[in-house]
Amino acid sequence: MIKDLSYYVHCFTSLKRDNKNGGAPHKPILLLSLINLFEKDFFHNNEINIIPELVASFKTNWTKLVNSNHHPIFALPFYHLNSEPFWKLIPNLGCEKWIESKGSMRNFTNLTIAVQFALIDIELFQILLISENRTILKLSILDNYFPETKSNFGSNNNDDDLPSILILQESSEVYQRKIIQLRKTIDENAFQEEVFIRSGIFKREIPKIYNNSCAISGLRIDAISNISMIDACHIVPFSEIYDDTLINGIALCPNLHRAFDRGIISISDDYTVLVKKNFVENLNSTLNLSQF
């Protein structure tokens, strides 16, 4: 069988779906979101990672196109597309049996732990690199699954795939109240997806503020590909105070990030690096912590 554009148009318009309530919209919405991110050059090979931009695009497209009483659970289509001929889940090491449990994979956290990425056909990847092909696939999905709401989608989808950075510029108190309120009002899946998306903004913006440089060592590596050696680090752990605001972030290289998270180093109010005395290190190493 020749896997050309017409083949994938057929695949995309013949998806295996639960037919209740007019048919589950999850798979078509995820495929539209995937096309959105190919248009913005997020994917450079046929490995489809679970990234905040993909989850955010899924939620945005769902709001535009779905008017049934289905629930926008991202984990469902990402997992169940595995039943389609062009999509294969690649588990993380040791999670091979876990991903066979359909019930467990409804949970967003379980999905991100168990699944390394989804692998699409190399032929589909090459087709998605071409703008005209993306348009044909997109229109085929809209016409087939969303004829009544497709006008809401528009011919171009220029929305940012992550919410505005403004949500991270709120005061810590306001941000924390909103997160706590979300936890009380939405289910656990939706909450984990929301945290995942907001964390994506945090990880994207904090290195920018520090000019992609480590705040302590000054390390900066510019790469032509999408590679960074600088992490966005929470000053106070998110798990303690639910604070993803910009003032709770610092950019550190991975080794100093780990040392900071484990309390080996800290920073005083006058920006002095404090190094604990309860460990031994090789002071002749160029990577020793005491030099800071």
User: Which structural class is indicated by helix and strand composition?
Assistant: mainly alpha
- The value of Rg in angstroms is 22 Å
Low-confidence stretches: none
The backbone outline, from C-alpha atoms, is: elongated
SSE arrangement, N to C: HHEHHEHEHHHHHEHEHEE
Strand content: 5-15%
Question: How helix-rich are the residues, as a percent range?
Answer: 40-55%
Number of helices: 12
Mean pLDDT: 89
Report the sheet with the most strands, covering strand number, pairing sense and barrel closure.
3 strands, antiparallel
Distance between the termini: 61 Å
Give me the secondary-structure topology.
Layout: H1 5-12, H2 26-39, E1 47-48, H3 52-65, H4 75-80, E2 87-91, H5 108-114, E3 115-120, H6 122-128, H7 131-145, H8 150-153, H9 172-185, H10 188-209, E4 231-234, H11 238-241, E5 249-252, H12 254-261, E6 265-267, E7 273-275
Antiparallel strand pairs: 1-3, 2-3, 4-5, 6-7
Describe the structure in your own words.
- The chain is mainly alpha-helical.
- A hairpin with a 5-residue loop joins β6 (265-267) and β7 (273-275).
- The mean pLDDT is 89.
- Helix content is 42%, strand content 9%.
What structural keywords apply?
292 residues, mainly alpha, three-stranded antiparallel sheet, two-stranded antiparallel sheet, 12 helices, elongated
